[in-house]
């Protein structure tokens, strides 16, 4: 596993995982650049260590360009993960995109309130998903350079 | 007495078996109860009035009876007094003892008083009054004679008195007096009998009235209790009905929620099927034999269509569950918004829009926009073989009930299948000719239903279609 991935993907469903990886590959993101977490706890361990209390490493936060977060996760929910990431000084500036199969207005509103940067509804057709991820990937990973920390 | 039952609702009450077979055919309508109550009240009032009248009559009667007895007593008193009168005189005539004059003097003093009393008592009876006059005259004569007898005794002794007595007409007078007394008594007796008979008659009448009112009271009680029983049964049935309705509503809501969650959960696996098929196609594009090369694409197409159906179910279900928020809305604005959203579908098409004046209507603007979206989208779709396509939107019947009409000159359909039109996934055209899921009109129908409005259509094959809808009662 890479220590400094460009994208962290937090997804529990193996099929969705496969397809998202595929879509990202097509968008130009190498699978070696992607760190996968299979549930919320694993994701939080990546940032906050085994005990959940460590500060996220600076190198991790510098290279990380995008977090793809599934809304529906087992055990700890996607919203909670979002909340925790957004409440840490170092991690809150990393762009996060929610992935979800529902387009419930309430979910969208709650996520935006918590500070998510964008939102993809997982469509039925793969083609559509591919295109969205492509646009996403192109924008966030290659076009949008992270803001240097010392200018804030 | 429970729920109001309308007067004309007899079919709810009468002929069906209610499990109280004894009173099967009786009509316990509100009108019946009202009439019975009025009748009963009238009857009881009549009985009451008659009873009071009767009791007054009875009282009067008893007063008359005692009056008559008083008269009789008075007559006997006078009779007694005059006897005392004579006794006194005879005693004195025989003995000369002045002690015998006491009853005489007493009678002389009291007779006029007692006769006056009798006069007063019988003042209403002219016959008796005449007799009393006779009596008075007679007693006067009597008095004269007796005083002569006394004088004779005083002056001349017993023999003179005796001869006076014998020669006098005392006995005749006395007999006449008795005769008068008898006549008077007879008269009073007759009156007494008359009044007694009247009394008996009135008492009997009163008894009849009481029995009748008692009977009616019993009848009314029975009738009322039957009615109450029936009302109670109706109330119970009503309650059961309400409970059933509530239960059905709960079940319906559960069904809607179930439908929604099922449709929702079908999306993920569908997505995976599509994804994997795509991946398969991409990997094997060049190695697949000719005969199967198109298959992955067809699979994806079908999956996409299934996705549309699922979205359609979800939309319909969400609308079904949503609360309608009515407000006064400008239909023109809503129509414009719908047209704007349909710009994509109408690009490249030659469509002639004829939009008339649209009123302000009380409705939920978001839901009504969905209605316009669907109906206009259909109009655009089914006129795709016509050039120019003419789509008209206007409002009819503004005074009574605003009715929106959307008319197109498209392919139309046979009215034979009109009732299938609003069914879920029902289509009257082939998928190859016109694409679609068959949910649009079901959604429209649901929305109109929620507004308590109506929707219907008229169409003829190749002559076009008109849809009409109302948005429920307007204030």
Question: Outline of this structure?
Answer:
Chain A is an alpha/beta fold. Chain A has helices at residues 14-27, 40-48, 58-63, 78-87, 105-114, 126-143; strands spanning 7-10, 34-37, 66-70, 96-100, 118-121. In chain A, strands 2-1-3-4-5 form a five-stranded parallel β-sheet, with helices on both faces.
List the helices and strands and how they pair.
The complex is a heterodimer of chains A (152) and B (475).
Chain A: E1 7-10, H1 14-27, E2 34-37, H2 40-48, H3 58-63, E3 66-70, H4 78-87, E4 96-100, H5 105-114, E5 118-121, H6 126-143
Parallel strand pairs in A: 1-2, 1-3, 3-4, 4-5
Helix pairs in contact in A: 1-6, 2-4
Chain B: H1 10-13, H2 30-95, H3 101-121, H4 126-156, H5 158-167, H6 170-284, H7 295-321, E1 327-330, H8 331-341, H9 343-346, E2 351-355, E3 360-363, H10 365-382, E4 389-396, E5 403-408, H11 440-450, E6 455-460, E7 464-470
Parallel strand pairs in B: 2-4
Antiparallel strand pairs in B: 1-3, 4-5, 5-7, 6-7
Description:
The complex is a heterodimer of chains A (152) and B (475). Chain A has six helices and five strands, in the order βαβααβαβαβα. Chain A has helices spanning 14-27, 40-48, 58-63, 78-87, 105-114, 126-143; strands at residues 7-10, 34-37, 66-70, 96-100, 118-121. A five-stranded parallel beta sheet of chain A has the order 2-1-3-4-5, sandwiched between helices. In chain A, strand 4, helix 5 and strand 5 form a beta-alpha-beta unit. In chain A, helix 1 (14-27) crosses helix 6 and helix 2 packs parallel to helix 4 (78-87). With 475 residues, chain B is an alpha+beta fold. Chain B has two domains: 30-220, Four Helix Bundle (Hemerythrin (Met), subunit A) (Up-down Bundle), CATH 1.20.120; 322-470, Histidine kinase-like ATPase, C-terminal domain (Heat Shock Protein 90), CATH 3.30.565.10. Chain B is built from eleven helices and seven strands. Chain B has helices at 10-13, 30-95, 101-121, 126-156, 158-167, 170-284, 295-321, 331-341, 343-346, 365-382, 440-450; strands spanning 327-330, 351-355, 360-363, 389-396, 403-408, 455-460, 464-470. Chain B has a five-stranded mixed beta sheet, covered by helices on one side. A two-stranded antiparallel sheet of chain B has the order 1-3. The chains are: A alpha/beta (152), B alpha+beta (475). At the A-B interface, helix 1 and helix 6 of A face helix 6 and helix 7 of B.
């Amino acid at each position: 596993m890479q220590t400094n991935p460009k994208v962290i993907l937090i997804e529990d469903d193996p099929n969705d995982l496969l397809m998202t990886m595929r879509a990202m590959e097509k968008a130009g993101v190498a699978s070696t650049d992607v760190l996968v977490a299979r549930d919320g706890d694993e994701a939080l361990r990546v940032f906050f260590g085994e005990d959940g209390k460590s500060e996220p490493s600076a190198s991790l936060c510098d290279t990380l360009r995008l977090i793809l977060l599934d809304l529906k996760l087992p055990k700890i929910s996607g919203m909670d993960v979002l909340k925790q990431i957004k409440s840490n000084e170092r991690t809150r500036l990393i762009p996060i995109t929610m992935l979800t199969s529902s387009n419930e207005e309430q979910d969208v509103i709650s996520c935006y309130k918590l500070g998510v940067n964008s939102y993809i509804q997982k469509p039925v057709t793969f083609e559509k998903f591919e295109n969205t991820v492509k646009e996403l990937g192109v924008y966030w990973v290659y076009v949008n350079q992270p803001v240097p920390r010392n200018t804030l | 007495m429970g729920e109001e039952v309308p007067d004309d609702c007899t079919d709810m009450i009468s002929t069906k078996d209610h499990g109280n077979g004894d009173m099967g055919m009786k009509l316990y309508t509100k009108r019946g109860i009202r009439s019975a109550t009025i009748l009963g009240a009238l009857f009881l009032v009549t009985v009451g009035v008659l009873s009071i009248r009767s009791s007054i009559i009875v009282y009067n009667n008893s007063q008359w009876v005692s009056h008559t007895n008083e008269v009789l007593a008075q007559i006997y008193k006078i009779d007694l007094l005059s006897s005392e009168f004579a006794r006194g005189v005879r005693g004195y005539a025989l003995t000369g003892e002045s002690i015998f004059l006491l009853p005489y003097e007493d009678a002389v003093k009291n007779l006029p008083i007692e006769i006056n009393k009798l006069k007063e008592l019988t003042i209403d009876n002219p016959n008796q009054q005449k007799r009393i006059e006779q009596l008075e005259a007679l007693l006067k004569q009597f008095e004269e004679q007796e005083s002569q007898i006394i004088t004779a005794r005083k002056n001349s002794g017993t023999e003179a008195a005796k001869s006076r007595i014998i020669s006098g007409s005392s006995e005749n007078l006395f007999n006449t007096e008795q005769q008068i007394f008898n006549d008077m008594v007879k008269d009073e007796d007759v009156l007494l009998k008359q009044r007694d008979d009247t009394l008996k008659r009135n008492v009997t009448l009163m008894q009849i009235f009481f029995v009748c009112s008692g009977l009616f009271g019993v009848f009314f009680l029975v009738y009322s209790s039957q009615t109450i029983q029936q009302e109670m049964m109706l109330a119970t049935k009503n309650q059961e009905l309400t409970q059933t309705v509530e239960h059905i509503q709960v079940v319906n809501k559960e069904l809607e929620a179930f439908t929604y969650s099922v449709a929702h959960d079908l999306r993920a696996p569908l997505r995976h099927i599509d994804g994997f098929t795509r991946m398969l196609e991409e990997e094997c594009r060049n190695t697949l034999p000719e005969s199967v090369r198109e298959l992955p694409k067809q699979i994806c197409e079908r999956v996409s269509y299934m996705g549309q159906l699922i979205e359609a179910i979800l939309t319909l279900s969400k609308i079904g569950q949503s609360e309608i928020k009515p407000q006064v809305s400008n239909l023109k604005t809503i129509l414009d918004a719908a047209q704007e959203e349909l710009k994509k579908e109408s690009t490249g098409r030659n469509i002639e829009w004829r939009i008339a004046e649209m009123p302000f209507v009380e409705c939920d603007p978001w839901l009504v926009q969905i209605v316009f979206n669907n109906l206009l989208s259909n109009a655009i779709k089914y006129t795709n073989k016509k050039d120019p396509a003419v789509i008209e939107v206007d409002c009819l019947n503004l005074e009574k009930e605003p009715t929106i009409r959307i008319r197109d000159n498209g392919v139309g359909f046979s009215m034979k299948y009109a009732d299938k039109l609003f069914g879920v996934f029902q289509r009257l055209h082939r998928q190859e000719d016109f694409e679609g899921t068959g949910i649009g009109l079901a959604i429209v129908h649901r929305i109109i239903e929620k507004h308590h409005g109506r929707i219907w259509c008229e169409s003829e094959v190749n002559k076009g279609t008109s849809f009409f809808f109302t948005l429920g009662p307007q204030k």
